[in-house]
UniProtKB/TrEMBL annotation:
Alphabetized GO MF terms: acetate-CoA ligase activity
The protein, known as: Acetyl-coenzyme A synthetase
Native source species: Actinophytocola gossypii
Domain AMP-dependent synthetase/ligase: 95-484
Catalytic reaction(s) noted: acetate + ATP + CoA = acetyl-CoA + AMP + diphosphate
Length: 659
């Protein structure tokens, strides 16, 4: 039993308390994870990972677990060969589980489809045969720009089956964002849909592909799933309907094994410069760690659990924890197409009740949104099937953590706060349900087999109670294998800051508490975290500056009670643009829309302020800290390092009255 905070005490005070939620005896007794795993992994890390990899089906056994001689490029399970799709699909059918449901797909308008492992095998085979008929060969890149449809999963698995490297682009990204990602990877095929359902209405999707593909030389074909039935433009020699090409293919396919280090996918993520980075992941190590974490962090029992990760496949969470990790374990899972409040704010809980979801994995921003919508909404549904709750994407505030456990988990379920990144490929720091005495707000401890440290500026580990930078001091199986086509950027971004020690720099601030547990404190670079999505300040600044009225822009992430951070932009107008006119509502809206067009609606600034100057240091660096003070309505901090200390007065006085 845990105590409840007393009257008048806010739950956020828990941050300074060391209250713990120990696992129940019943949960601990049946848990996959054990305390002994920490020791076992510490004694012989490579043997530990070899044991995890051994749970997959390998066509050729590896002869070396880890080759780190070419650091910072790791090779895991050297010499081993496997087929990732066979591991996620065929293996379970061969084991006699073909009738088990792989996917309960729930469409936003209320339609649905139940897909067993045997059916998944046939669908993936047909898709693979279709991709082969288009002339695609192992090593080619395929862009996938699809909503949350079963075809998105068939496409990813068909690529994996054929050794094609997929690059999934989130369906909320703009034509321009899609174009730059297609170009960078030189993709030959893009798989898309006519449209997608968003908040009850069909919205076009292929139109953005048409716009992007008109300006990319590498695309040969566009494969189009019919989802909404909306009108689309058609280019006969280039566009192919999914139902015309895939449906008639043979539903058997003989898979080939690929090297453990064969590129599985590229996924673009924001960095500190304007250009997104193509994070490269390979096969054997990635599948080993995603599968291992699903077993141990979510305590998955494939025979009885119904798992649901609410992410979109456009993000890494969808790759690792909808597609590869759960399917490698033969899980039964829910895949939901739409938004959480369509047609009503209880949609998620209705789905939990309908399918008897046992494991639910979501983001703090959504948990806070559910809190805002009120307790009476989940109270209308039977949530008693839930037994593990997970969180990912940003630090979870203790108040939201406790609400999640009490209101959604009936005060009974373990909550696992999982820290990881696109780059790490799989969960790295997290409690283990059934083992860890959970602390609300802390990701606590690196998983067995994983090593992380909090270090100071010089790379020295800080002591208990100390804060600094989070680093990963040992290679791990699902680590990125570089940035697509940019070796220098890979070394500079992740490996130069603590180059002497050879540590991977994660870009997150962190601290140890008195027990040595890790608390994540948010990004220490110019990357914002808006609703769990990574967006770089520079990317939004470049988008703003590309508008004809803007001369200069500075963007900061301001604390936001629901989205974690909100994007606030400060812009200087070009000479000749009448300021009053540009400050007007219509002009501000035009700028916000321009950012949505350049990057995607998720990057739209919450607020845009027109200012006469920006605060800069003598070397010309924008002092975002001061702008954050303005954005968060705080007293302006220390201005002594500004080149011109009167600038802040100018900004503040200009903003008074401008609303
Ligand atoms: C943040 C998402 C605190 C962090 C899987 C990281 C978190 C970035 C947590 C990666 C967590 C993710 N606690 N912060 N549990 N999980 N983050 O690449 O800043 O979209 O660096 O991967 O999200 O975001 P990405």
């Amino acid at each position: 039993m845990t105590e409840q905070p007393g009257q008048g005490q806010t739950l956020d005070n828990l941050l300074t308390e060391s209250r713990t939620f120990p696992p129940s005896a019943e949960f601990a007794a049946q848990a996959n994870a054990t305390e002994a795993m920490y020791d076992q992994a510490a004694t012989d890390r490579e043997a530990f990972w070899a044991e995890q990899a051994g749970q997959l089906r390998w066509d050729t056994q590896w002869d070396q677990v880890l080759d780190w001689s070419d650091a910072p490029y790791a090779k895991w399970f050297v010499g081993g060969r496997l087929n990732v799709a066979v591991n996620c699909v065929d293996r379970h059918v061969d084991a006699g589980n073909g009738d088990r449901v792989a996917i309960h797909w729930e469409g936003e308008p209320g339609d649905g489809r139940t897909i067993t492992y045997a059916e998944l095998q046939r669908e993936v085979a047909k898709t693979a045969n279709a991709l082969t008929s288009l002339g695609l060969k192992a090593g080619d890149r395929v862009a996938i720009y699809l909503p949350m449809l079963p075809e998105a999963i068939f496409s990813m698995l068909a690529c994996a089956r054929l050794g094609l490297t997929h690059s999934v682009v989130f369906g909320g990204f703009s034509a321009e964002a899609l174009r730059s990602r297609i170009d960078d990877a030189e993709a030959k095929l893009v798989i898309t849909a006519d449209g997608q359902y968003r908040r009850g209405k069909p919205a076009p999707l292929k139109a953005a592909v048409d716009e992007a593909v008109a300006r990319t030389p590498s695309i040969e074909k566009v494969l189009v799933v019919r989802r909404t039935g909306i009108d689309v433009e058609w280019t006969d020699e280039r566009d192919v309907w999914w139902h015309d090409l895939v449906d008639g293919q043979s539903d058997t396919h003989t898979a080939e094994a690929f090297d453990a280090e064969h590129p599985l996918f590229i996924l673009y993520t924001s960095g500190t410069t304007g250009r997104p980075k193509g994070i490269l992941h390979t096969s054997g190590g990635f599948l080993t760690q995603t599968a291992y974490t699903v077993r141990n962090v979510f305590d998955l029992k494939p025979e009885s659990d119904v798992y649901w990760c609410t992410a979109d496949i456009g993000w890494v969470t969808g790759h690792s924890y909808i597609v590869y990790g759960p399917l490698a374990n033969g899980a039964t899972q829910v895949v939901y197409e739409g938004t959480p409040n369509t047609p009503h704010e209880g949609r998620h809980w209705e789905i939990v009740q309908k399918y008897g979801v046992t494991i639910y994995y979501t983001a703090p921003t959504l948990i806070r949104t559910f809190m805002k919508w009120g307790n009476d909404i989940p109270a209308k549904f039977d949530l008693s099937s839930l037994r593990v709750l997970g969180s990912v994407g940003e630090p979870i505030n203790p108040e939201a953590w406790v609400w999640y456990r009490e209101t959604i988990g009936s005060g009974r379920t373990p909550v696992v706060d999982t820290w990881w990144q696109t780059e790490t490929g799989a969960i790295m720091i997290s409690p283990l349900p059934g083992v860890t005495h959970a602390k609300p707000g802390s990701a606590q401890r690196p998983l067995p087999g994983i090593s992380a440290k909090v270090v100071d500026d010089k790379g020295n580990e800080v002591g208990k109670g100390g804060g600094g930078y989070l680093v990963l001091d040992q290679p791990w199986p699902s680590m990125l294998r570089g940035i697509w086509g940019d070796d220098q950027r890979y070394r500079e971004t992740y490996w130069s800051r603590f180059g002497e020690q050879g540590y991977y720099f994660a870009g997150d601030g962190a601290k140890y508490d008195a027990d040595g547990d890790v608390w994540l404190l948010g990004r220490v670079d110019d990357v914002m975290n808006v609703s769990g999505h990574r967006i770089s300040t520079t990317e939004v600044e470049s988008a703003l500056v590309s508008h004809p009225t803007v001369a200069e822009a500075a963007v900061v992430g301001a604390t936001d009670p629901t989205t974690g951070q909100g994007i606030v932009a400060f812009v200087i107008l070009r000479g000749g643009v009448a300021e009053d006119e540009a400050k007007g509502e219509a002009a501000i809206k035009a700028l916000r829309d321009h950012v949505a067009k350049e990057i995607g609606p998720i990057a739209k600034p919450r607020q845009i302020m027109v200012v006469p100057e920006l605060p800069k240091t003598r070397s010309g660096k924008i002092m975002r800290r001061l702008l954050r003070d303005v954005a968060e309505n705080r007293e302006i901090g220390d201005v002594t390092t500004l080149a011109d200390s009167s600038v802040m007065d100018l900004i503040s006085s200009g903003l008074k009255g401008s609303g």
